[in-house]
Amino acid sequence: MELRTILQPACTTCATPGSKKKVLELISNLMAAQYPTLSSQAIFESLIAREKMGSTGIGNGIAIPHGRLTDIEEPIAILIKCEEGIEFDAIDKKPVDILFALLVPSDQCQQHLSTLSSMAEKLSDKLILKRLRKSHDATELYQVITA
């Protein structure tokens, strides 16, 4: 799947959320603002339900929070670069500063796994990660991740 089809420029931001809960709320609010048919509360609950199963912090300062919604037909994503790392219960116990959040339709399990896998692979590229961390604004962040 082409990343530009699920990640819109307006869904890319630099922020300082301060905590895991705050960043999940930020993700929920940004998605709901871009997709008015979605409820920020439903998005938040989907993300929290997944986090309760185990942290989506994959290490090296990266988290890929994700969830499923019945109210969408296509996957949607958010990319956030945190100005300061936040505790996210990552597998390496290190703070997270890059988050790629993904919501998929409830009936698209295979696509969900495929998209998560390709994003994890992209974020494991040291050059891309370095460029993301050096990005100064949302536009630059979007350009780096979609290049």
TrEMBL record:
UniProt xrefs under PROSITE patterns: PTS_EIIA_TYPE_2 (PS51094), PTS_EIIA_TYPE_2_HIS (PS00372)
Record domain PTS EIIA type-2: where: 4-147
Pfam families linked: PTS_EIIA_2
Coiled-coil features, chain-numbered ranges: none
Record-linked CDD domains: PTS_IIA_fru
Gene3D superfamilies documented for this protein: Mannitol-specific EII, Chain A
Cited InterPro entries: PTrfase/Anion_transptr, PTS_EIIA_type-2_dom, PTS_Nitro_regul, PTS_SugarTrans_NitroReg
Protein name: PTS IIA-like nitrogen regulatory protein PtsN
Organism name: Shewanella electrodiphila
